[in-house]
């Protein structure tokens, strides 16, 4: 079956993660990782752990022989401090930023592999509705693209992902978003991080992960 030009692929996810890791490697110093990530209440280090955890958790949902349809695979999510993200994945701080980014790269690789190897008719639970491998790939891309922006803001780095990646994510998860505006700015708007001309900044949002 021929795939739509708007279809999100494992290659798209892999590209997103690799671009994110390459950008974060430009952090000015190890100390910078303890600054706040954009408008979040988490540090840049914690935000990358959260992103890694998202990618791992999406891979885990697709992993069982019979993926769960009524909840998440029951790992124990724990926060390292009050107000910090509750994760399964925590990077060894002694490994430094290089170790943290290796954790992100590894978790991204897990989801890429699961998306590639899982039949497209498989469904698994997500709080926004059961989704398919393409949907989990797109969710992983949203988390990667927008949280890298949060981290880039905290580290004072430039981050602007390719427009075609943003367009495919918008088509898959935000079908009601405008299609005649800049795709990256539209994705930031759709995730409550920016305004668009004539459209106020969103105070709440969610994607539509159910299969098309």
UniProtKB/TrEMBL annotation:
Highest classification ranks of the organism: Bacteria, Bacillati, Actinomycetota, Actinomycetes, Streptosporangiales
The name this protein goes by in its record: Mycothiol-dependent maleylpyruvate isomerase metal-binding domain-containing protein
Domain Mycothiol-dependent maleylpyruvate isomerase metal-binding stretches: 20-152
GO MF annotations, alphabetized: metal ion binding
